[in-house]
Fold this protein.
Amino acid sequence: MGYGVKVEVWGDYALFTRPEMKVERVSYDVMTPSAARGLIEAVFWHPGLKRWIDKIHVLAPIRFTNVRRNEVKAKVLGSNVKAAIGGGDAPLYISTVQNIQQRASLVLRDVRYVIEAHFKMTDRAAPGDNEGKFKDTIRRRLEHGQCYHQPYFGTREFPARFRPWEGEAIPAIDETRDLGYMLYDMDYSVLGEIVPLFFRASLERGVLDLTDCEVRR
């Protein structure tokens, strides 16, 4: 048996990057399920719980804007890390002077969602854990604005604010559209391999329903 939670999240900007765009970043029209899961896990994560996103309600009109963001074009090499562990003097930093570059991004603005999710206990829960305990803990952390790290909308420079949804009816926008294939989540079940999972997304009167979607590799 699982139990549910409704979380209202909002912010000034969001960037849920489409993986097919190689250089310039372009956001999906709506928050992805993996971004919603990550946001909830920022509030409360426990190995004894498994989380599923059921629905994402879009409360604000879908609007885009163009921004320019500074990024770096390099990363710390794994060989340098191994050398440093062995006592070498390989550099473990990235010089922004040498590697900085400016890229355009198409991002969402003035976003607001209500995330519906449910949780189930796993075999990694401690003997003293129970669903009521977890439910109370999640509720308390949402009400007090507590989180393990700052939740964000896709990228860390776009922070998300959150609170429990108190109402009954959720006033989603009255908009229906086909969103095409969207990233659902990443599969880490195979050791040493990360497999992206996709699904055919559709917004129905402002609601992205994930309760019966077909996930594909």
